[in-house]
Amino acid sequence: MGLRYSIIISLSSIITCSSTLYAQNKKDTVPYQYTVKAGDNLKNIAEAFGHPNSWEKIYEANADRVDTSYTIYIGQKLTIPALIVTRRDSSLVENRNRLKKRKKREPQSPAENSSQGKAGNKKLSEFREAFKKVVAQEQQTGTDQEKTSSPQRSTISINGMVLDETRSKMGIDFYNLFYRHWEPPSGASNFMITISEQPTPSRGTMITIHIDNEKVFQNRLQPKYAYTEKMARQAVVICYRTLLRQRSSSNSLSGY
After folding, report:
1. Torsion over CA of 69, 74, 79 and 84, rounded to 10 degrees?
2. pLDDT of 165-174, one tens digit each?
3. What three-state secondary structure class fits 80?
4. What residues does the LysM domain cover (predicted)?
5. All domains in the chain, ordered by first residue
């Protein structure tokens, strides 16, 4: 009698545990239905779930309901992938503790937070000015060496650089593709190519390229890798031709 009772208790425990695990697994694989509110777009919906860079996954899960312009409407039902919901739920406590530690370690006022963007732009300007000073110093050093050395000419060539200021996945893909195909024209030096972007979740992301202070390329990317690669190749051609034109103009001026 005691043995039979023990077996019954064990079977009941196994069944209860299995039911709990099944319910938990089912919960983790069921997507969440979100109703669009006034002022919503894909990016701030993704931010509400703690993953601002996951707005593309939300778009992919609702591609049959959202067109390529990422336009959504009030009252529209959107499917939030289960992975995003699960990651949000599992990270709530961790993020809360991390924020507490960060506030203790780096207390910031609202004024400091609002000035971070300006500080970043100031650092970038300082970096560019420092780069130009290095170029000028190297050129001056080369001139001094020509004056004091033998008749054999000695020149110093400083290569240009490509600066990445992208943030989103599409922007980073564009930069990587551009850099993969980029090869400066022979004789081009002392130039700085800056690739920046302005993400607009409801309309893609705007890529802009400057050579020194001249804007030479601007295009709104689409969430298609093939299109991103096409635009990167086009940007490479435009930058290459621009540097050729600048070199030609410089040579013409030096001839006078």
Report:
1. 90
2. 999 999 999 9
3. strand
4. 32-80
5. 25-98 (3.10.350.10), 159-254 (3.30.160)
